[in-house]
Amino acid sequence: MGNELMVFMIMVIVQVAYAGMIIISKLVMDGGMNAFVQSAYRPIFATISIAPFAFFLERKTRPKMTCSVLFQIFLCSIFGITANQNIYFIGLKNSTPTIVSAIDNLIPAFTFIIAVPLGIEKLGLRSIAGQTKFWGTIICVGGAMLLSLYHGKVVIGQLGFHWKYAENTSKDVNSANSNFFLGPFLLIVSSLTYAIWLIIQARVNEKYAAPYTSTTLMCLMASVECVIIGFCVVPKLSEWKLNPIRAVSVVYNGAMATSFTYFLSSWCIEKKGPLYVSMFNPLFLVISAFLSWILLREKLYLGVVLGSIIVVAGMYGFLWGKKMETSAEDIDVLELTKEKKQLSTKLQVDLELQLTQNPKDNNNNNMKQITKSKTEL
Q: Are 187 and 103 in contact (CB under 8 A)?
């Protein structure tokens, strides 16, 4: 129970960190920072922040690196950071934080679709647990779609108090100057790449029990990849200069929203699996919508409120189904172990009866029979 609560609380912290990332990233990009520059700085600071932990904490326990694991970490850097973040930040620049957090809830659906054919997750529609898990995912995604497509009346207007820096940005978060086709489309693609990362990261955790080291290598590879892409798209050095608010953004995004959250997510994936981790994204929606309302003066519409309630209900419905499924598997394991013990005891008694009824038999033959029977078990 304590371990499950810890995983739950860690995932809540991860979602809060992600919400802070999109708020500050939206501000600096609306203020003129290029999305590719933002994406390039993020893994650099992530590598710097996580590398000391990898060196000191896993120096003696770090397993041997194999070509297979290194290649999987490389794939994680591609799908989890390079492709994901470049596409993500461009999508964020062309939309709003609420839309971003809503579309992020497609990650469970993508993860589920990928995980089932690979055998990582079971569909199990014949069981109550499987049906609950399935419909929880559908409800969660449906709520996200409702939030994205339906606004309705304004429930809560703009807050009088807001971040002063937001006044100086060139865009209004509630305006229609963003590309509402390109933005959501890119965010959907970003969600797909993140779901792929969740699956690959689960395999890395199984083969390489050094999360700090694997995260450091992933961020280091992504740093090289993102810098190359960034300079190809934005060759002017003046675009790479950091003023105070941009510096805060890239340091926070690198240290907190990348290395810290990626490590915690990897640990939770190891404990609960990739689908469990992805189902916490609806919480990201609620937190980011609230912070956007407070800091960016974004209006909260009826669709946002209803969609948030639906996605949270879907999330907990899925978690309930996942819990029932895990409990059923534990019961099956216990019953199988009990049956094996009973069979072993019965066979031992039968062998002892045979020895009693045939005292003149050769002891060596009896010992061979006992050994053979135990081997068959």
A: yes
Tell me, what's the pLDDT at 354? Answer: 62
Residues 6+ apart with CB under 8 A from 200: 72, 75, 76, 79, 80
Identify which of 321, 314, 325 has the alpha carbon closest to the alpha carbon of residue 138: 314
Cβ pair 89, 38 in contact under 8 A:
yes
| pLDDT over 90 percentage in the chain | 15
Cα–Cα distance between 226 and 38 in angstroms, integer? 10
- Residues 74-82: what's their mean pLDDT? 93
**Rounded-to-integer distance, Cα 259 and Cα 252, Å:** 10
What is the distance between the alpha carbons of residues 169 and 174, in angstroms, rounded to a whole number?
Answer: 13
The amino acid sitting at 130 is: G
Cα 344 to Cα 17, 176, 347, distances in angstroms: 53, 72, 5
- 147-196, pLDDT tens digit by residue? 667 777 877 665 555 555 555 554 555 554 455 567 778 888 898 898 89
Query: Mind giving me the DSSP string for 289-322?
Result: HHHHHHHS-PPEEHHHHHHHHHHHHHHHHHHHHH
